[in-house]
Amino acid sequence: MKIIRAVKCSTKFATVKKKNTLDLVLKEYSSVVNFFIEFFWSKEKLDKGKLLKPIVDLPKNITWLSARLRKVAAREAIDMILAVRYRWKSDKDKLKVNKPLHRGQRITCSSTIAELQDSNSSFDCFLHLQSIGNKIKLDIPIKKHKQFNYWESKGKRLNSYIITKDYIQFVFEIDVGPKKEYGKVIGIDTGIKGLATTNEGQRIGDKVEDIINSIGRCEHGSKRQKRLRNYLRHYIDTCAKQIFKENINLQRIIVERLKNMNFKTKVKRKLNRGLRKTIGNWNYSYWLSRLERNCEENRVRFTSVNPSYTSQICNSCGHSDRNNRLSQDKFSCIKCNHTDHADINAAKNILNRGFSLIYR
After folding, report:
1. In this predicted structure, what is the pLDDT of residue 209?
2. How far apart are alpha carbons 354 and 305 in whole angstroms?
3. Which residues lie below 8 Å from residue 22, measured CB to CB, with a gap of 6+?
4. CA atoms of 63 and 3, how far apart (whole Å)
5. Which one has a higher pLDDT value, 8 or 283?
6. Long-range CB contacts (within 8 A, 24+) of 202-210
7. pLDDT tens for residues 92-136?
């Protein structure tokens, strides 16, 4: 099994002149992408394989970009249009008013434009940009960091780059081997009081609620809020890795399929404003994505199940009632009197639901 990992390296070591040149290229590239968006927007069938010279040369008189970079811009325009069409495929009215717009923040290119070259200076390497147009050639200095070196040692670096004024993103392909066929299976309940609770009673991420409350007390957009959000993501990363450290020989992880909670709770007004804000600060989707990412790296299978009523169903007798949940932590079945920690009971239900899904 092969996985893809992206790594960002800062462009802060570039001189002011190089940064200004890069900013100029980004703005010119953005205008060409938007030109192609206007050209392709009304066309029903879009095919990146049919970008021949007559189409690529359409903006030739209004830009100094090379033919290679114009072709890259045309491809990105098609990708942006297809993404919008897919998102609003069930709502034609919103599709009409949601035409994509490239804002000049990045360029996605391959080895035809960019090439990573070794350096004899104090930097590890340079990203050499050529065939840009207007006789522009640009060498952006790169210093490799720990994460870059780790993935470079594990897999193969692909000739694909995302270039912005702040960073350059590199892509690695890693062969991790086949998924495990045998081993331990656990169910995980995700929450705010405890980020992860397993069916065996392990509880990981008890600090997440305090961090969320601290974020909520900050002024929106302040430096402190940004620092705390970064700390929350770092804490979630650590918790995701801890799952694998404390559970040796894992074969499968089963979690709840939590999707669109912010959107649904806001539109339907099921939760008050404070709780909706808490859910937003919690960043549950980031937690699940990091957990799935670690599963890929460790050859562990990742299964998500319907979360409906997992906190209300008794794991012992199967009786479902909202009154079974006495509090945030306590679960007591009103039918069979079975008691358990509420999150552990939910994790057991998630595990059982995952097993039934797998065997079915």
Report:
1. 87
2. 6
3. 11, 14, 138, 140, 163, 165
4. 38
5. 8
6. 202/246, 202/247, 203/343, 204/239, 204/242, 204/243, 204/246, 205/235, 205/236, 205/239, 207/235, 208/232, 208/235, 208/236, 208/239, 208/282
7. 888 888 899 999 999 998 888 999 998 888 899 999 999 999 999
As beta bridge partners, residue 117 has: 126
Q: What are phi and psi of 20, to 5 degrees?
A: -65, -40
The per-residue pLDDT for range 193-230, each reduced to its tens digit, is: 889 999 999 999 999 889 988 988 888 889 998 999 99
Q: Name residue, tokens 């199940």.
A: 305
Of the candidates 198, 190, 157, the one whose C-alpha atom is nearest the C-alpha of residue 290 is 190
- What six digits make up the tokens of 183? 């081993």
Non-local (6+) Cβ contacts of 214 within 8 A are 228
Structure tokens at 151: 């993935």
Give me 224's structure tokens: 């402190």
Whether the CA torsion 64, 65, 71, 74 is positive or negative: it is negative
CB under 8 A, 24+ apart: contacts of 265-268: none
Q: Could you tell me which of 154, 351, 344, 175 has the C-alpha nearest to residue 251?
A: 351
Contact between 330 and 344 under an 8 Å Cβ cutoff? The reply is: no
